[in-house]
Structures are given as structure tokens and as C-alpha cells.
Hints:
Strand content: under 5%
Structural class: mainly alpha
CATH superfamily of the largest domain: Antibiotic binding domain of TipA-like multidrug resistance regulators
Order of helices and strands: EHHEEHHHHHHHHHH
Strand order of the largest sheet: 1-3-2
Distance between the termini: 61 Å
Shape: globular
Radius of gyration: 23 Å
Number of helices: 12
CATH topology of the largest domain: Globin-like
Number of strands: 3
Low-confidence stretches: none
Amino acid sequence: MLYTIKKIAEISGVSTRTLRYYDEISLLKPAQTNESGYRFYGEKEINRLQQILFYRELNLKLEDIKKILDQPNFSVERALAEHYQKLLMKKARIENLIASIEKTMKYYRGEIKLADTEKFTAFKEKQILENEQQYGEEIREKYGEDEVKAANRKFLQLTEVDLEDMKSTEELLFHKLKIYLTQVDVNSELAQEIFNLHKQWLSYTLPNYSPAIHKGIGEMYVGDDRFKSYYDRNDIGSAEALNNIIQHYAN
């Protein structure tokens, strides 16, 4: 059975405009297109669209989704199992955040007492959730599930003072990078200071530091547009400069 693009849009919740775009980039081609240019989709295309939506829910870029789905050895069953596990982890993180917020609400209603460290649990859970949604896939692929979990546990253990120190360290790092961009010299004392600041900033959440891990993080800053835009948001070239410094000093 074939469906029109309008019917597919109704079934899936994906707009006809988006479906046309998916066709343009060869992410989801229709089963056939008639002489008038109308697109028609069959069961194979519906199944592929379902996989696209699953991967989009995990915040993968369209180009990456296409690479995955176009692999000769792509298995729908294996992909569904992976989706299921990742969504279970996401569910657990959200439930932890909800529990923390509920506890905080009870505290403000005077129903319970909270230790000072507990008051920041909801905030830190939220930070972890946002980080997972934005970068979780790439970080896990590069460093593995155990390393990511260890980093999250370490972040949850940070005190209010630790969080303030972490924030001020990053602010100073950006300030030094701004100065560095006016006098680029990877062998300068300023470059060494920037490296030390970044290493210090990593120490707040990185459970097992190594030069190799540090270099890998630097490579992500220039290899992933999301990381790059984060560092370049104030001064273009900051991500590249920071990576060059990391590659030079992380030994």
C-alpha cells in the first residue's frame, strides 16, 4: 500500500516540508514519484522514517543518521535495542531530576530539611541531563559508558564552592583565550597558563585524567560544530586556538 506525502505527514507528525527536505538530501526517498511530481511512500519508507525519528530523539544530526541507515550491515532489530537502552537511561536521568525537584519543593514548603549539598542536586541533575541530550552520544562513543557515568557521579559530588570555582575557572579561561588571540604563540607563558586552566577545569568532572583524553577533548572542540560554537561564541578562533594549545602541552 502506498501513501501520499500528506498522509505520511498526518501519520508521523512530520511536516510535508520536512519530508520534501529529507527527499532532497536523500535521507528518505519516496517509493515512487508520479509524472505530476507527487511523492508516494510504502512500508519500507515508513520503517525508515520511524528509524529517523528514533535517532532524532537522541539528537543525532541528519547527516549522521543517513550514514547509519545507509550502512550495508544496518540491522533494525539491533538499532531498536540500542534505542531502547538509551531511552531507559534517559528515563532514569529524568526521574532522578524529578525526584530532586520534588524534594526541593517539599523543602520550601517546610515539610523536610535539606543539607546544603542536597540543595544543588536538582541543579546538577539538570546540567547533566542537558549535557547528555546535547553531547551524550559523541562522548559515549569516544570514551565509553563507564567513563561518562564516572564523570557524572563526580559532578554530582561537587559542592557549591566547587561549582563556583569551576565557573570562575572557565570564565578566566575565556578571558585568557581572548588575550591569546591577539598574540598567538603556542610557546608563550600565556599558552601554558591557558592549558593549565583548561586542565584544572576538566579536573572538576574528569575522573581519570590522561594526556590522551585531554587531547581527544581538544579534537572534539574543533571536530564537532556544537563544541566549536560553544568556544567560539565570544571570539571566533577560540576553539582552534585552545585545541592547538592542548595538543602542544598535553604530554
